[in-house]
């Protein structure tokens, strides 16, 4: 048998310590029984009570079989001390003195058995059979308790989570909360508490396909790592969100907590690629009030549509100013529609961004936000009707435009949605007047070629000729040519100046006048800026090449 096998076998046997000051007694007792066959093993020998007491602790014995009469410490004293220090040890006392006082004392100190010398084999066997029965019974009970305790400890996290969810649902009577806290080994001493909801947006900022459940697990794990130690947060998943129950030492700590939650939201976006909004509820001083704090936290996450996600929103800071400017949105909406009509994408995007930024700045209720969205959509459809735009091509057939807008997560998402649809409207308007647009740009270029030598040629003069506004002309001209009108005019004049420099033997001031510049110094400045050298050097260089 290997050493390890022997060790495992010994562990399954009950250990016995023999105590007697006569060594031959050990030998006799050893031969009386088949110890291992009965489920026991002799763990050691002691010659007095003092030595036995030390060995009992060292060897972790189950049974001590001791003589009464021994030096230093007798058997009865040893039994008394063993019962005081190790209640589970079974003690068998044997003695050569058949005296009632010894037996009575043995019973008094709760020795399991009292045996007279000389020891009879059958009697000894019967004694150890009874001892083993008791030991087996105790072991079974212990194993059952250990099993239950292990199961309880395994179940504890689930029990704790159920408690937290029941608590925020308001389903636990106030008088029972303390009992659950104690039984479930929950550390929630307060004195103040606050509920926080971590809402994970369905839109992925990185466009990385991540399972929503795994994303929630990832954010929860990050929250436990970053917030538990400092704030004592208890984190559970609840209705698709992550619920945090946080203890606050002081009411004023909510400011620091809000700042930390704001940083956590940004960390979650960086680490987990998740858009997280932390809704923070009202502070309470009783665990039974956490259900109200949770409702506040849930409401706070709804404000992400106004204030954006990837941030913390404290419901206590939501103080809408409804009457600051009741009609501020009208000018912004009209500006957006004007940019749609102009046909230029960049100014349109800028106008929409101004609108959404102002919306985020204007602290309004969710109800007023929904009214604003309704008014915005109504104005868009009115504009579409006035300009004969096919709105089905813009928003799709049978689409609920209002609900589309309300389901967006933030003002940034609203801005992106608005930009996308306004660009579709813009394209329809642009396509309808594309031919007209090309026509007047062509006419403008022809006008420049015919009149570039005129020193008073400007945007104003050409717009007067074409009968269009300067702003509209500039926008359309740049869109069609890729240049501003001034840049186009300058480039064309410089082309003509180079032609004259290389083909005519004329002074610089004469050439300047012929291409529309009354000031020769300014002409030289523009020329050098265009070609990197003065007109005279440019001419000399080109002539030397030939």
Describe the overall structure.
- The structure is a single chain.
- By secondary structure, this protein is an alpha/beta fold.
- It folds into 4 domains: 3-139, Response regulator (Rossmann fold, 3-Layer(aba) Sandwich), CATH 3.40.50; 187-317, 2-Layer Sandwich (Alpha-Beta Plaits), CATH 3.30.70; 328-432; 439-545, Orthogonal Bundle (Arc Repressor Mutant, subunit A), CATH 1.10.10.60.
- The chain is built from 25 helices and 10 strands.
- The protein has helices spanning 3-11, 23-32, 35-38, 49-59, 75-85, 100-108, 121-168, 174-183, 212-231, 253-272, 290-302, 304-307, 328-342, 345-361, 366-386, 391-395, 401-406, 411-432, 434-451, 459-466, 470-481, 485-503, 508-514, 520-531, 535-545; strands at 14-19, 40-46, 63-67, 90-95, 113-116, 192-200, 234-238, 241-248, 276-280, 311-314.
- The strands form 2 sheets. The protein has a 5-stranded parallel beta sheet with strand order 2-1-3-4-5, sandwiched between helices.
- Strand 7 (234-238) and strand 8 form a beta hairpin.
- Helix 4 packs parallel to helix 5 (75-85).
- The longest helix has 48 residues, at 121-168.
- The chain is elongated and about 150 Å long.
- The protein starts with a helix and ends with a helix.
- Mean pLDDT is 84; it is low at 1-8 and 320-325.
């Amino acid at each position: 048998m290997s050493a390890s096998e022997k060790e495992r076998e010994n562990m399954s046997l009950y250990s016995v310590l023999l105590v007697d000051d006569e060594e031959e007694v050990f030998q006799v007792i050893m031969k009386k029984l088949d110890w291992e066959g009965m489920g026991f093993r002799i763990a050691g020998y002691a010659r007095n009570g003092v030595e036995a007491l030390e060995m009992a602790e060292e060897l972790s014995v189950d049974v001590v079989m001791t003589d009464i009469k021994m030096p230093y410490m007798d058997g009865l004293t040893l039994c008394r001390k063993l019962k005081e220090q190790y209640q589970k040890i079974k003690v068998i006392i044997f003695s050569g003195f058949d005296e009632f006082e010894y037996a009575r004392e043995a019973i008094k100190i709760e020795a399991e058995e009292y045996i007279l010398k000389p020891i009879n084999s059958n009697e000894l066997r019967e004694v150890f059979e009874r001892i083993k029965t008791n030991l087996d019974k105790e072991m079974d009970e212990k194993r059952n308790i250990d099993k239950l305790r292990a199961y309880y400890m395994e179940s504890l996290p689930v029990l704790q989570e159920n408690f937290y969810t029941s608590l925020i649902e308001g389903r636990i009577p106030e008088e029972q909360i303390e009992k659950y806290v104690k039984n479930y080994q929950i550390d929630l001493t307060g004195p103040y508490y606050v509920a926080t909801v971590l809402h994970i947006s369905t839109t992925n900022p990185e466009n990385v396909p991540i399972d929503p459940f795994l994303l929630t697990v990832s954010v929860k794990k990050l929250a436990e790592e970053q917030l538990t130690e400092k704030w004592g947060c208890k984190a559970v998943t609840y209705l698709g969100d992550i619920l945090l129950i946080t203890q606050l030492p002081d009411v004023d700590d909510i400011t620091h907590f809000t700042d930390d939650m704001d940083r956590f939201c940004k960390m979650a976006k960086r680490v987990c690629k998740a858009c997280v909004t932390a809704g923070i509820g009202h502070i309470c001083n009783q665990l039974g009030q956490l259900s109200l704090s949770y409702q506040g936290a849930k409401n706070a996450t709804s404000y992400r549509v106004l204030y954006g996600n990837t941030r913390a929103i404290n419901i206590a800071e939501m103080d809408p100013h409804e009457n600051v400017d009741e009609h501020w949105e009208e000018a912004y909406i009209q500006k957006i529609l004007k940019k749609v009509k102009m046909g230029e994408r960049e100014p349109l995007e800028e106008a929409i961004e101004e609108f959404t930024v102002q919306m985020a700045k204007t602290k309004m209720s969710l109800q007023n936000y929904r009214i604003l969205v309704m008014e915005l959509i109504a104005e868009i459809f009115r504009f579409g009707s006035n300009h004969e735009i096919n709105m089905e091509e813009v928003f799709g057939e049978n689409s609920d435009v209002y609900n589309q807008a309300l389901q967006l997560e933030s003002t940034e998402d609203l801005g992106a949605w608005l930009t996308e649809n306004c660009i579709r409207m813009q394209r329809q308007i642009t396509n309808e007047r594309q031919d007209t647009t090309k026509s007047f740009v062509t006419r403008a270029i022809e006008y420049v070629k015919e009149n570039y030598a005129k020193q008073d040629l400007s945007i104003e003069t050409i717009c007067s000729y074409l009968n269009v506004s300067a702003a509209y002309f500039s926008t359309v001209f740049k869109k069609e040519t890729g240049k501003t009108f001034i840049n186009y005019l300058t480039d064309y004049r410089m082309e003509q100046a180079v032609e004259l420099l290389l083909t005519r033997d004329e002074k610089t001031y004469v050439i300047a006048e012929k291409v529309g510049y009354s000031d020769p110094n300014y002409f030289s400045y523009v020329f050098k800026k265009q070609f990197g050298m003065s007109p005279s050097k440019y001419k000399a260089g080109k002539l030397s090449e030939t």
